[in-house]
Amino acid sequence: MIEWLVRLGANSLQGLETFGRSGLFFWRLLRQLPSALREPGLVVHQLYNLGVLSVIIILVSGLFVGMVLGLQGYNTLVDFGAEGSLGSLVGLSLVRELGPVMSALLFAGRAGSALTAEVGLMKATDQLSALEMMAVDPFPRVLMPRWLAGFIAMPLLTAIFSAVGIIGGYMIGVTLLGVDTGSYWTNLSSSVDFYDDLLNGVIKSVVFGAVVCWVALFQGYDCVPTAEGVGRATTRTVVIASLAVLGFDFLLTALMYGEVG
Questions:
Q1: pLDDT value at 17 more than 60
Q2: Burial (Cβ within 10 Å: 0-12, 13-18, ≥19) of residue 90
Q3: pLDDT band at 187, cuts 50/70/90?
Q4: CA dist 39 to 27, 46, 53, 250, Å?
Q5: Is residue 28 part of a domain?
Q6: Overall domain count for the chain
Q7: Tell me, what's the pLDDT at 7?
Q8: Is residue 6 part of a domain?
Q9: Torsions phi, psi of 135, nearest 5?
Q10: CB neighbour burial string for 146-157, b if at least 16 within 10 angstroms, e if fewer
Q11: pTM (2 decimals)?
Q12: Which one, of 261, 125, 142, lies nearest residue 213 by Cα?
C-alpha cells in the first residue's frame, strides 16, 4: 500500500513538472511570434505541410460524416413528420460541434503526430543543438512557424469539413431519400446563426488548433532523443491532444451556450 502511494505521488509530481515545463514552453513560443511574422515564407511552407496535405482526409471524413448525419437524422425526424428540418439538424450539428471537434481530432492524428516526429527526430539527430551552437534560436526558426501554421490551418480545415459535411447530408437527404431541396436549404440557412453558431465554431477551431500544435511541438521538443523516445512522444501527442480537444470542447460549449453559471 505504501509503495503504491509512493509511486502515485512520484507520478503526480512528475506530471506537474511536465505541465509546468509545457507552460514555460508555450510562453517562450508566443514570445517568438514577431520573429515568425518577419519570415512568412517559413509559415507558408508549414501551411502546405500541415494544412494542404491534410485536406484529403478532411474532405473524405467530412463527406461521410455528413452522409451519416443525413441518414440517421432522416430516420429519426421522419417518425415525427419533421423530415423537412433535416437541413437544420445537419447544419447545426456540423457547425457547432462535429466540424470543429472531428477536424481537430483528425488534425491531431495526421499533422500533430507528424510535428512531434519531425521535431523529435531533429532533437535525436542533434539538429536543434547544432542550431543553438550556431547562435540560431530554434524557437523562431523551427517551432514558431509550425505552431502558427497549425493555428491558421485549423479554422480553414474546419470550414472545409463543415461545408463538405453539409453537402454530404444534402446528397443523402435530398437526392437519395427525397427531402425537398427548398426545405433543406431554407431550414439550414434560417437555423444557423452567424454569431451563435458560425462564430462560436470558428473560436473552437482556433483554440483546438493552438492546443494541438502546442502539445505536438512540446512532446517533440521534450522527448527522449532516441528512436523509442520519439515513438512514445508521438503516441502521447495523439492521446493528449485528443483528450485536450474533447475537454476544451466541453468547456467552450458550456461557456458559449450558457450551461455554466
A1: yes
A2: buried
A3: confident
A4: 20, 12, 21, 36
A5: no
A6: 1
A7: 75
A8: no
A9: 65, 35
A10: bbbbbbbbbbbb
A11: 0.90
A12: 142
